[in-house]
Hints:
Chain A is of the alpha+beta class.
Amino acid sequence: MRRITLWLLSTVAAVVLAFSYRTSTMGAAGGETVSVAAPPTTGPTGIGGSPEDDGTTEDDGPTGNAVTPETTGNARSYAGSVVQTRWGPIQVTITVTGGKITDVAVPTYPSGNHRDEEINAYALPVLRQAVLDTQSAHIDTVSGATVTSDGYKQSLQAAIDAAHLR
Amino acid sequence: MTTATAMHPVPVRRRAATPRWWADAAGAAGWLSLLVVTALWMHNSGVQQTTGGGWTAVAAIGRLAGLYAADLMLLQILLLARIPLVERAFGQDRLARWHRWTGFTSFHLMLAHVVLITLGYAGPVHTNALAELWDLVVTYPGMLLAALGFAALTMVVVTSVRAARRRLRYESWHMLHLYAYLGVGLALPHQLWTGADFIGSPAARAYWWTLYAVAAGAVLVYRAGLPAWRSWRHRLTISHIVPEGPGLTSVYLRGRRLDRLPVRAGQFFQWRFLDGPGWSRAHPYSLSGPPRSDLLRITVKDLGDGSAQVAALRPGTRVLVEGPYGRLTGETYPGGPVTMFACGIGITPLLALLWELPYRHGEATLVYRARTEADLAFRTELEWLAAHRGVRVVYLLGARAGRPSWLPARYADNTDEGALYQVAADIARHHVYVCGPDPWTDAVRSAARTAGVAADRLHTEQFAW
């Protein structure tokens, strides 16, 4: 075989194998519809929240706990919508006591690779504190976790709407 | 039909002069694209992140480096896509020089991008940079493709470093160079899927998709489509071969509808003779006679790179062409005194111009430099032009001067520009055409500039790149 043929075949092989790798087509599957929020749940979110959206979630981990409102004494929980971000779905749940957000939980967040985990390990506590401080979804994006922050804020806003907070 | 009269020009369609704003428009477009990239980066908090310092700043600068690298690579593809507007505005010799510069610059920016992004990502989470790099490549969307593209581009750059380039056969180097297209293409997915400046920015995605689409379209249309169409439309075949002198061969070509081939005297094509192996390499040869509606002529010197085979070509052989290219034309010549400087095989485009330019009797001078009298070509034609169109032909024979000069040794006691005044005392008013080896062309060029020839009257083109 001539050298040029060998080069051609090797190149084709390298490209085909590279495109077969899982990260090489993942963007194409998501298409252009990324980071579009699921429509915010309307009305009182008491009826089952939005777990339908979780069908797209890869890990069927703790996403089912969005059943709201959950009344514990005076405190009620409200789940935000599941927001699909570039890195994966994110969902925020807030606990409201006496018209104030007293706690924020994130049952679902991107964890596709260990960088997501590392980033979120420091970003989520920062975001949580910001929500408790400002009592709103108007919080600063965490540097280095822009995508997660944006999804977080969208889901958070849906939860705040559901709780009829201002 | 003698050789001389065979090249009598037959009127062909003339092309309008290249508008001077084309160069401004093309230059402005390139500059604007870098501006757009910067603006999109700034819109995505690039400046705040940079001034904020820390690892975020490192990653932000890394992103900008990557964006510039990609933009410059796509601009290069456009520069070399043989887009007629770009070709005519700048000329291939300048484009090739710019390509070398932007090529290495974009590669260095790409290296900076890889290093800075890796550090910027590894820093905040305190991981080892190499581990982070591996993680980036194997887990981030499109990153394995980007790594492959990086490898392809690295190979292209390494084989284009002068030392390596000299060791490679032209054909091998050229084939490897085509991997640049692959490398640039493989970089796109990671930009769109992982690039922080794309996610959530429809404007950025639109810009990059457009740039990639335009670059790919330009290559397909002007590098592949147009030459294929022209070759098919005109069906050039070899009519006959005429030896012109030692190591010098003229090839006469016929084809269909040559009057519709938009070529001017002084221009060149990339030629492929379909006579067997070796056709994969295209050779740049200027027309050595004015383009006619029934006949074209090129003259080839044996340079030891396959050009010797030309003498053995058979009539009837099919020929593929890319072109016409080149700015050494009479397009901006309005009439009036003209002086041409030819050295060696550089005579070919100037001879075509002598046939075509509309100078009046006695207005044209040709200075023809060669080693010995035996090396002079086209004596019959030059004598015909001297007799019938009053062309003054000055032969400069002899060995090179001991210093860099366009003069042979025997006249080397003149200064370069002093000798120009002896050729024509009013040289500053002349249109000057120069064609020859690069150092020789440079010597004439700088002497002419010193002697007061305006830049827009000084026409040169370099062929050795």
